[in-house]
Amino acid sequence: MGVGIPHFGNVYIPVKAMAQRLGATDTDLIIPPSMTQKTLDLGVKYSPTEACLPYKLTLGSLIETCELGADILIQARGTGICRLGYYAKGQEQMLLDLGYNARFLTIDVSHHKFKSILQLIKDMTNNAPWPKIIAAFFFGISKLVALDKIERVVQKVRPVEWEKGMASRIYREAIKAIDEAAECKTVKRVSKEYIDKLNKVPKNDKAELIKVGIVGEIYVVIEPFANMDIEVELGKLGVEVERTMTLSRWVEYSLFLNYLGINEWRKVHKLARPYVDHDVGGDGWESVGEKVLYSRKGYDGVIHLAPFTCMPEIVAQNIMPSTREDIPVLAVICDEQLGKQGMLTRLEAFVDLLSFRRRRRNGARV
Description:
By secondary structure, the protein is an alpha/beta fold. 52% of the residues lie in helices and 11% in strands.
């Protein structure tokens, strides 16, 4: 039996850590390869034309995982407004049509998320003891938190490093070291070591940073292949990036706090309320609120990442220009037609606009 998951950022690292703690071997868990053009081509070929990019990329990734020997696949399901809840059924049928005898196990991302994940782990481990399952789960989460913490430091270092690419190289080394860490204390030690390395990178302390917040649909915001490494490219242009959406934050908000009845998104929803006062599905409500949030935090601009045909983000995209906040928003629609050079040209123009506004605001001649 080989269990596979679709590729999504660094999520394979905590999943692998949990599986190994519960006695899984390398053949039990099939780690999906990183996204490539082949992944996208497979997904586009076998997806409905109107499907969004996350659907196409995860389908392509699942096909590649099946080719590596997976016969059990884990995917999300739900009853929310976003089409994510229906991915599993459509993808399962397509894989059967392609001749892959794969069975889907699903996680409910609409209700009882924490319970759904733990129950899935218990079912897959022949009723392993709950203490062992919970210990493995939190070991995996410790890696996820460490990765996101290091990534935040990388986002601050990239735009001011003298040697371009050094922060990204250290980050890749950190990912490998955390993946190989076998104990929680090792994860903490490795995390501290690499944050110290990043803080020691030679920096241009006189650089006038442009600050940009990234909002949008969770998959295209977090998966670098889906957004063409937009954070790296912005760093090269001297832009410090922040995104409120990370995998560890999703776990904290959607699993733990939500399970305890605490709505940690309340602040963001309150900020959005003058423009949209209810859930529009996916991350659309949060996108609008986060635009307001970044304006209040004094950021220079916002980049809104949205999959083509994503209805929640289409709603958010149409609301953003009418808000009172004086902060420019660049909408980047992500699909298989998005070209790297075209995106870079738009980013350069956007950064020039933000620099111009900054100089004018500071009274400089423009």
